[in-house]
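>> Question from a student workshop board

For tomorrow's exercise we were told to take the sequence and the ligand below, predict the bound structure, and bring the output to class. My setup keeps failing. Could a helper post the expected result so I can at least see what it should look like? The ligand is adenosine-5'-diphosphate.
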Amino acid sequence: MNDAVTFDNVRYCYDNVCALDDVRLSVPAHALTALVGPNGGGKSTLIRLMAGLLTPDAGVVSGCRSVGYVSQHIGFDNSFPLTVRELVLMGTLDPKLRAYYRYTAEQKGAADEAICRVGLTHVAGRGIEQLSGGQRGRALIARALASKADILALDEPDASLDIDAARELYALLLTLKTDKTIVIASHHVGAVLDIADYAAYVKGTVSCFLSPDRLKTKLKGGMVL
Ligand code: ADP
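>> Workshop helper replied:
Here is what the output should look like for this input. Compare the format with yours to find the bug.
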């Protein structure tokens, strides 16, 4: 089994808080890894380090840096007049974009393929403000897929979903792991451990990295979330 990303002795501190320290973790490629742990345990920080959005204060994050980051916080106004296709096309943009850029046929094809993979072709021309929470989450995953990222790093994509929408999301993730490495942080511990291949418990560090079943047993045995 290859590793997609490796954390070697990583520390990250915000101004007054040391969120993570002594993180040693290898994330297996082409598998689904669940990050669980208490609120404030450092799951989001770990995901942002993986995506290269944060730089460690100590240690090294190495491996694939082609990461599609899907945050629970959309990062823009939902009422912004943008269609699903336009949102997903943004995933194909080069950061060194020049003015008056026109999308190429290849970029449009990549966006349409990503929209199809997440099952949103029927709403591709619809404004994002008309989507349900579950559809919006899948549109954001499509944007990450359109970027051709090898790793999808999802920070609580199920936070505001009802149980049916969350189940649809998990089913989608299972189809994507055939060719992507998936890392998901979630508070829905039972549900994500059911679909995960590997599980990490994050509380100030990665305090254990186990099979999901073994972590479930430990949690039942009194490990505090
Ligand atoms: P989790 O995702 O497990 O809830 P986080 O990674 O969000 O945990 O937070 C880890 C710790 O870092 C917490 O103590 C949190 O308060 C702190 N923290 C997170 N983001 C910031 C920030 N932008 N500024 C200061 N402290 C932060």
